[in-house]
């Protein structure tokens, strides 16, 4: 529900933004609009039908990325009962780049577990929305970021269709973005699979070239009639993602927390219009605030004047 | 400190996946030590004979087409309807510990045997094959029903001796 709001906000921004659009700033976004991802990039296919909810991947990520000690042990299954406001299950945070959630589905004998982390979009909205260019999509497929450049403005948080980027507040003055980096620094750039992928005892995730994974995914669906949902999530959604998902036929994506209404166009196509507003905001806000300030003080002056009368 | 911890875990993971120790024995009639997760969990002792009995001598239930009995899967049959026993019918004879080594990646993505492309690693093969059957037959299926966690495992999972100190507002088990 919230998603729709945000998306419509961005789309709305498109309309209002378009009216006041500075032509210059739209150029950058248009140039990246035709980018379809690196041809040889790597990806991960997550077959959720095989996940046993052991949370080993969460533990592996915590160690690999030197994240803070968790609030509860990684073998504690009570986290599956934890819910945020509105009954939503756990989400990724600045302390946990990946989480596994359990979904009980009506008419299905066993629950389905869903591992979640940054999906490493082919055309990342976080990247395009970032006006200090903190983000990079590497040829290997990872969407990484430079913490030293991040100014903590949270535009990427709003732009991400999957609610992935989180912020660390350890420094109140300089909060920086934190999210899964597909283990780029320690593994991916050396051709090795992410820590969570390798640690999984159930072979839930296959690591390989994104194009190979797509054919593998369709082959799995075709080879096991009646077992899989026919949608390979992330193949086309939001213009394609490096991490893709298979679910079982009786656990459709929209029942296990996936937004199936994001469309197949990269989010940047909305964001770029929103983006165009950012410089506008930066130029207009100071003027606006000065205006408010003047108005407020003027009132005070008037009051004072009246008082004196 | 972070660095040290990281190295240790890296080692644990690597060892768990690529331990050079031998795995499943070759012969039948014995209790085997399954140790593909050895560093996080102690080995599992597996009673091969009992399992043979449970599947009424139908080796294909676990060994697909490699043990000389008729393959079961409709996909396997297309090529392996009459395949003889292979030289090494053990799990580790086909399922590598380290499916993600450069060499094994090349091998699995390079094969024209399409159905073998995403062959699970050894530990994944165990969990996919054993666990489903265990759940369906009410056999032990929780992690610690089969494994005892090692000290390295407790550190990795932040549990046992390494469990976080519960916060004052923690709800404990069961949730709300
Ligand atoms: S890819 Fe790396 S950073 Fe991302 S969730 Fe997996 S272990 Fe964590
Ligand atoms: S390690 Fe694998 S089986 Fe365990 S929760 Fe993560 S994805 Fe699922």
Q: Can you describe what's shown?
A:
The complex is a heterodimer of chains A (309) and B (176). Chain A is 35% helix and 12% strand. With 309 residues, chain A is α+β, with helices and mostly antiparallel strands. Chain A folds into 2 domains: 68 residues; 232 residues, Alpha-Beta Plaits. In chain A, the strands form 4 sheets. A 3-stranded mixed β-sheet of chain A has the order 8-1-9. In chain A, strands 2-3 form a two-stranded antiparallel sheet. Chain A has a two-stranded antiparallel ribbon with strand order 4-5. The longest helix of chain A is centred in the C-terminal third of the chain and has 41 residues. Chain B is mainly alpha-helical and 176 residues long. Chain B has a two-stranded antiparallel ribbon with strand order 1-2. Chain B starts with a helix and ends in a 20-residue tail after the last helix. At the A-B interface, α3, α6, β8 and α7 of A face α1, α6 and α7 of B.
Can you describe this structure in just a few lines?
With 309 residues, chain A is α+β, with helices and mostly antiparallel strands.
Element layout with pairings:
The complex is a heterodimer of chains A (309) and B (176).
Chain A (H helix, E strand, L loop, with lengths): L1 H18 L3 H11 L8 E6 L8 H9 L34 E5 L8 E5 L8 H5 L5 E3 L5 E3 L9 H5 L6 E3 L7 E3 L16 H5 L5 E5 H14 L19 E4 L21 H41 L1
Parallel strand pairs in A: 1-9
Antiparallel strand pairs in A: 1-8, 2-3, 4-5, 6-7
Helix pairs in contact in A: 1-8, 2-8
Chain B lengths: L1 H17 L12 E4 L9 E4 H7 L5 H4 L10 H7 L10 H4 L7 H9 L11 H15 L6 H4 L4 H6 L20
Antiparallel strand pairs in B: 1-2
The complex binds iron/sulfur cluster (SF4) (2 copies).
